[in-house]
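$ fold --in a.seq
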Amino acid sequence: MAATEETSYSGPIATNSYETALGIIPPIEQCQDVDLLRSLYDKGYGKWPPHVNLIYPFVAPEYLPRAKAQIQSRLRIPLEDPLARTPSVLLNKSGHFTHRSNHTVFLCEPDEIEASSMAFLRSNALESLGHTPTPCNFHLTIGQSEDLSDSSREFLLSKARLLPSLEFPIQHLAILIRERSSSKDRSFNSMRLWGIIDISGDESPTPSPFPEFWLQPSPQEESATGSEEENEEDDSDQTTPAPSCSRQPLPGTTYYFESELEKWQPCSSILDNEALPGTLTISSYNVLIDSEYPPARDRDPLLLKTLLSTSALADILVLQEVSDDFLSFLLHDEEIQHRFPFTSHGPPAQADIGPLPSLRNIVILSKWSFSWVFVPFHRRHKGAVVAQFSSIALQGSSETLPLIVAGVHLTCGLTDGAVAAKKVQLQNLKNYLSRNHASNPWVIAGDFNITTSTYSIDTALKSKSISTQTAKTLSSMETSMNEAGLIDAWAVARVEAADLGYLGELDDLFEGEDGATFNPRENELAAATSGTSVNRPQRYDRILVRPQGLLRINKFNQFGFPVTQGGSHWVPSDHWGIRCSMKVNADSTEKGVDDLNILKNYPIHIQHVVGALSDGSALTSALLNHQMFPTEDEIQCRREAFVLIKTVLLGSSDDDNTSMSDIPMVIVPVGSYALGVWTFASDIDCLCIGSISSKTFFKLARQRIHRAEVQGVRLMRRVEAHTGTMYELSVNGVSMDLQYCPAARIVERWTELPNLHQSDPIFNLSMLSLRKLKPYRDITYIQRTLPSMTTFRLAYRCIKLWAIQRGVYSSRFGYLGGIHLTLMLSYLCKRMVHDLGSVTSADLVSTFFHHYAMFDWKNDMVFDPFFHKRKPRYQRSVREPMVVLGFNSPNANVAHTSSIPGVNTLIREFGMASRRLAEDGMTWEQFFRKDSIAGALDERLAGVGEFLKSYDSYAKIEIQYWGRTLGKGKGLVGWVESRCLLLVVDIAKVLPGFEVRIWPARFTNSNAIDAGTDYQGCYLIGLSKGEGIEWNASKEDRQTAKLALEKSLENFQNKLQSDDKYYDPSSSWIGVSLVRQTDVKNFHLDDREWGDYVADIEEDSDDEEDGDALDELEEDAPTKKLPIRPAPSHSSKPISSSKLRPASDVLNRLRWDPNLDPNDYIVGYEDRFLGAKETTLEKWKTEQTDDEFIPQHRILYFKKRTDGVVVWERRTRTDLIFGSGVGAGDS
């Protein structure tokens, strides 16, 4: 009866309304893989459920009750067709429709199916509505291709083919009705569930089997709930309609490899009983997708080999740009299955596992189990895989904090929109981690795609490819990561000498290109994919760590470099891979011995420049205008000069005498040339290391240099420095200083030297050898640990130019020298990168001036805590107002020539420079005062005029020289310069509270220059009342001070004139006087060479370690007989033929041998006026600039203080320390 009543209202109902639809919705548990693809490719995602339409268009909304009743009545009538009893659906075939601008890809029933339940249901439904059944192409839409290209269509079809088969019984039909949105954009109208038609025959009331899981919030709702940052992103580059993607975190399925079944299975639970590892290694690698479709497989074996290589193996592997094809290949490998049994995504080729969502995917593999979620970003296909490792956790007092590892691949490109997108993506990830894992340790690894090369950024700014705001955004991203507590593993490992990465060519890098992982200059794949004509190296890939006390960065390295196979050059990917090793500490309260807790005791206050000063190109331009960069010709000239001197000293194949080339020996540059901070006025410091003695080397070197004089190699002067003999050379006009270090074992293991630890037994050398080797070892350490040599070099040149202009660049006069700048600046550079992750040259310069202006020079010392780990045990004397320590032993103070007046001058100048950089509108050209020198070539003139006008009076040290030998002229000038600092110190004692400042250059007046025959010059020490000092002395006190000053000047003059080694009254004159400002107003700088070149053929020092006779090594070499010094006749002791070890060796042994107490020894020496005198060893001064300096050739003996035993004596040739000479003598 009921059926009769229902059919009484039957009649045709039009099916022409697009407001409704009748379809089949698969069970929600089978929709996960389908919806994952639909969310990225189907424009109907978020508005339509995954479905198969039976009738669309359907009936008008007002006829829905009637249509439902008629269809349900028809389907409940018992039918003979078996499809009516067990209707089901099987969707396992993919297909496509072609449209005007793209293709629609779908799933459908297989061709071999004989009878379709969906066709049966459609026919009955149409008949119930009064229509004749018509055929239909039943399909479940997956998405739309980007365009009409075959590759785009086949790519999406390949995704659909990898979907697991959809097979389910049909129990309900869904009636959908369109819900109109209040938005003007009709594309956000959604299909809501109006009702269901139960075809199972069960009439009992049941809840709807289809919760509206497909609905997504409208843009207005997202804007209301989303953060401001999440809605700033520009999607203007997306040309096709984008699916409405959910930005809610999506839980993912972790897979593990079941070895018994030989397949990957979903992890039902996460193991949390695994033992806490002591170390953790994470690798990140962008494996590169060559093409959308078909997939390229030629690099797959090489990528697999790279990932399993020693340099890449890790506990956790974060991969970017992973395709379905490559992941299936990777997870099929037995070695991968063994080393990484857990993965965030299973192999798509496995029948029960769906495809990866995107073309370029992030995948995490691990040796430990983990859970993960996908945190989507606003742009399609962009998001982060965030994994939680319960087995690696920080055990707090009340909770366990697991390690969080996030894999990222940010938007690429250097455009305003791309940079804005990167910023938002990074902020979204930080927000998610902060909300959900606020106290956990984090590791964020992947391809950040953040442009780091300042050259690329400046080029983009000049071409207006990006705005100034975008350039600031790039910098702000670095700051935001640091503010979140994230530290850059590469930067930390680099400054702590734990970066074992690939260095490549460093000479022509710009700022931000050190540590590059994307290098078009060395990676042909990178050159092909860079998409820009600039092609500069970029450090795109990073591993950021928030340790939280759990992790301690230990090592860092790169991998994936080019290889040669079968004679061909292959590169696995366009990126280098990166790997970070960390120590794991479960208790955050524990502090390892290697922790850099010392950094907390020495904070630095980073000064950021603003305005025009922040323009790196402006700084470079200013330095170019001041000739602080060498030209290409100068670079080539020095390269050729260095090659020539190596050829001359080491010998060549066509040389008649090849004995020296057979000696194991190496020659390396040190100093500014090795660091790459030299200018046109710099010389080249060369260090030769060999297996022969110093005396033999210099004899051989002199002979070869004399023979090579026709090639432009000249010996200018032989100098006896405190480190031993040194030759001053001129090689085709390039000045060189040549020193030698006898160290046979060093030469034997030369290639290992840069990586040897400082405690290696190979460095058990004599103190003299260690001193000579120290510059090379220190420079090698600096080159290995500076995060950016380019940034350092630019800042170095900037500060050097400033120091030259301000008259504070000369270590001989107690100011800054190259080694001072290197040590002071390198520490700040490393510290700022360690704390911030990156640093610009301008900020480094500004921080340098501010930091050292505020530095407590009286109580603190400059040292590198990254090297020393703790404060060095250095006992400074009262004569050391400034202490700057290097790295390797012997750890001497490089600022030993500093004085209190000099340090005060430096502090004032540092402060003035810092304040000038903080002035509004300051530019680099104004800072260097280009206008004030009127284009003069000599940068020192910028401050000379100010110096000559700033002081009331000056102490003038005048020199006249009328000899013709250049060596003697230079020797006289150099000797006077080395003594000037003594007068500065003495004047500061006589006039306390006065500002005493010496200008570190020689002056002359125009008349002296015009004379042309005699050389006349002077050094000036400015004297004036100190700033803020009230001079209230009486007339008598003033007169007394003046007399004391004049007496000090007179004593200094007498000391200079009494030294017959340097002062020869027959060819020179020295005078010291007090002059007024008006007397020096016409003075100018004097850079003349005092004398003409004459080859220096003085005898080699006998205070060097002797070696084999010259004729044993070079029989054919011409020899010159030297005068033989007669043996002393007054000695009653037998004279041994064994050479006595020099006093310098004994002095060093007593000071540095840990088994000897230097406080227990006395030095006997000969005073020039008082005869034999004694002093304690700890009071003995070795520096020539010290007031109490005594030359070592005046040492007579050493004896013990406790028992008076003489352990070394020159006269009797007794040596109880080394056993040389007559050894123990009669004792």
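$ fold --in b.seq
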Amino acid sequence: MIAAPELPSEFHYPQDSDTRFSSDTDFSEGPDVSINPTKGKGGKKGKKAVGEKGKGGKGVGEAGRMNGHHQENGMENMMLFEVVKMGKSAMQSVVDDWIESYKADRDTALLDLINFFIQCSGCKGVVSGEMFRNMQNSEIIRRMTEEFDEDSGDYPLTMAGPLWKKFKGSFCEFIAVLVRQCQYSIIYDEYLMDTVISLLTGLSDSQVRAFRHTSTLAAMKLMTALVNVALNLSINMDNTQRQYETERNKMVAKRANDRLELLLQKRKELQENQDEIENMMNAIFKGVFVHRYRDAIAEIRAICIEEIGMWMKLYSDAFLNDSYLKYVGWTMHDKQGEVRLKCLTALQGLYYNRELNTRLELFTSRFKDRIVSMTLDKEYDVAVQAIKLLTLVLHSTDEVLSPEDCESVYHLVYSAHRPVAIAAGEFLFKKLFSTREPEEEGAPRRRGRQSPNANLIKTTVFFFLESELHEHAAYLVDSLWESGAELLKDWECMTSLLLDEPLPGEEALTDRQETALIEIMLCTVRQAAECHPPIGRGTGKRVMTAKEKKTQLDDRTRMTELFAVALPPLLAKYSIDAEKVTNLLQLPQFFDLEIYTTGRLEKHLEALLRQIREIVEKHTDTEVLEACSKTYHALCNEEFTIFNRVDIARSQMLDELVDKFNRLLEDFLQEGEEPDEDDAYQVLSTLKRITAFHNAHDLSQWDLFTSNFKLLNTGIENGDMPEQIVVHALQCTHYVILWHLAKVSEGSHRKEDLVSLRKQMRMFCLMCQRYLTNVNTTVKEQAFTILCDVLLIFSHQMVSGGREQLEPLVYSPDDSLQRELLSFILHHVFIDQDDDSGSTDGQQDDEAGKIEALHKRRNLLAAYCKLIIYNVVEMNTGADIFKQYMRYYNDYGDIIKETMSKTRQIDKIQCAKTLILSLQQLFNEMLSELGTGFDRSSSAFCGIKELARRFSLTFGLDQVKTRDAIAMLHKDGIEFAFKEPIRRRTHMYLERFMTFQMALQREDCWLPLISYRNSLQAGGDDDTMSVVSGYSSRGSSVRSKKAKAATPTANVAASKRKLPEGRLSIEESSSSADVSWQQQTMQTPVMMPSPHLTSTMLRGPGDVRGEPKRARDDSYMGVYTPQLHQTPIDYNRRGTGLMEEDEEPIVEDVMMSSEGRMDDLNEGMDFDTMDIDLPPSKNRRERSELKPDYFDPASIMDESVLGVSMF
């Protein structure tokens, strides 16, 4: 913020009657509005300072009467705050009642007004009469601050709900009406306004946000009301001065001296009143605005800027100068969009009035660059208003904005945010299209090339070409639609510019300009017919009004009548230009086809069909042929009478194409002859035409499957088939199968049709599978894409929805096909950008080529992921996809993440297995590359850890839903960790935690540990040895061996271990452990009690033991060592069994713990100072009842083992 000059804390009304509002304020004349100048006050009293509070008048009793309201309103004894809050009474009557009470007892009424402002701030305290008489405003505010409850943070101006939403408006209205009703008498009594302004100034400087916000709003609204009063006084003074001058200029005989004296007295009184109003406004401005326009709260700053804009607009003679404009200019740099928005709306009100432009010249030159830069504001609302403000500036004067300033707004017509684009379109229209040639009165309206819109349409074309965003014509049209719809819908002028010869002296359009004009014309037709913005700008479907629907119908009728006649000549003129023809052929899709019949336009339809047929014969471009196919599809509508005529033309053309294809194919596939390039071109061009039409039309009556399959089979056998022929043959065969399926799915079909379709589908899938190994990348990609589509269509999903009769068609890929599909993805999708040289089809290694290649690979990956999601292939095949999540996150992260989400919805358990499988694969790959002695700080291992962390985030925090999945994930991970060669390393790791006192224990409860240890050493199949079996063999040799004392070797080995400081010696520790253990053993011969649940947070050992905190080391898996809680044991809780029936494995609580996930979700926080208390499980004992954990590593681990790695 720009620092404001230092101002005194208290402001006094100056005694000089000639004081003006500011040094450069000039209260000049305004509109002629007369008021009654009579004031209800006596002689002038000595003026007081605003900071002082008047103590005159009647005393205030504690039980003094509140402001009296009409009893019929039911609010006789209601507080003023309650009346305004309810909003049921007219504000005029509320204010009139308060004025009556003020005249009766001004101290009581003023006390009610003070409490009104206090209560509007949300304060529960009440200013009593005693406080009002004996305390200064600062003391009262301090007392109210002490009684203010800021815990909730809400106060009336910020509370939610319909009642409080209306409160702000009622609050502001009350202040405005109060000043308006008091403007002739009470506000000049040097008591009311002095007290109110002093109170609001003090509250606005409070540390309490509610006081500061409410008082600032009240003070600003009070200032606005006073500005209106000052404006009326200025007008009356000017009127009085003119009357005085008129009377004085009369002849002496006709001059009325009494009237002159009356006018002088009236002018003097008005001048005195104006001086007082000026002093009040000065006090508010310097005491409140200058401090609060840079308040820490954005809402308060916005209030100040909004109101100063009102002052400059209402009373421009006094406020519209640089002394006040500078505050708006400075605040345009505010960090909050809300405040910047208020600056722009305030300036719009000023620039809208052209009479004020001369006073804004200096401000415009100083802050123009800032306004232009705000068109790119991150807040879209601010950007929209900035563009609208520049439009007003442009409307007022065309010389202020430079060409560079205008160009910075021009490009915003292509913005994806529609309001910004619409505002930029309005600016562009005013700048480029506002200079229209005037038409002579009485002269016939010029049409076509000679219309006034001709040059404007050319200007649009020139702008479109210069912007170098040729594929965004739809965005340009949408931006200009609201401001220039009449120009854009002048299709007659557009067609005339394309068809007619240029006038003498007129420059003809170039080929590039004609292409751009046709594209713009197509976009305008689409916009008029569909009535919704282009893709990327729409905010959803909007319900059109009746007027919009009528306009849409009228536009469709007019465009059909025009283009039905003009389209055939246009196609004939540009028949060899593929780009122009492609755009022109899309026009019939928006026609009202009924007009061909009602308008007697059949001959033009015949001409259109002839032109389309000629275009099909001339062109082989896929885009042109597909446009022709779509046009036939649009015209072949059985609802209209033109259907038969169009259907006959289409059938004749297709008959010729199929006959030609079969004839060429027979010659092309003759044995013993080498096909030349001309034959291959003829076959390819005909196949392209058939494929394009087969996409939108059913060609089942022609047996295209046999010929295409023969062509594909020959390509496999010989291996020299041109790639484009194979690509289109695959696509055409795909269409044959889909149309056959559509006919079978209708319900009326024979068994032979199902058998035939099933045979064709399986043959085609086998053919595509064989083409996956083709040497040509384009052919392989086409075969893969089509194969994925066919497998998805003919999966088990096709029998859903009551289509059980299609069950014989269900086809599931075998294991070999699944492996080939996965191998294709791994070798053609997950590759580096530089390695993808084959899929770019020989394009240059430029940015556009890379983007196109990436888009193609994304489509391939999406096709395969759909097979995983719909359970066409095994879900575990997704492991090879999921493990690439981190490496190719920028290219395919969204696809892989969505696939994981969908698979989890299908089967949580299997999805968890797939995730852990992907991690296992990466770990094995790392071991094969780095060996078992890898560095844990290596990028490969860190990448696996990061991938695991990302996987964990995908489970969410709902522990109940993810419980089984997390358990399965841990189970598979543990099984993987204990496989060879990791098993032996796991035993070595656990051996380091073995201490002497553990070796001395040879009771039954150690059987699981002994069994687990033996399994690690022997590597046998006794991993799952039951604890029950250990107890059932109490008399066995194993039991007897356990009962023996520890050998001296064990003692020596244990004594060599280093004990941490402060621990017991080996003898003391072992003896005390023996005693406690024997006591418990004699009392209950059951298994060891369950351990205390410990947090999975990563903590240093010093956090628990009172030792200094250690630096966090990422090279080891941190071990949390909690203190032992020796809770009493309830021996009556257990029976003779090993575990109670309702007791679940304690590991479930650890699996359900969300602390590890919270660690990931809150990275960057200091977890060393964060304690999370896990809630107890509902289906087992409270954690405080769990028995002490003798397996707790805190009692046996020293500092030397804390850095040991598990792997």
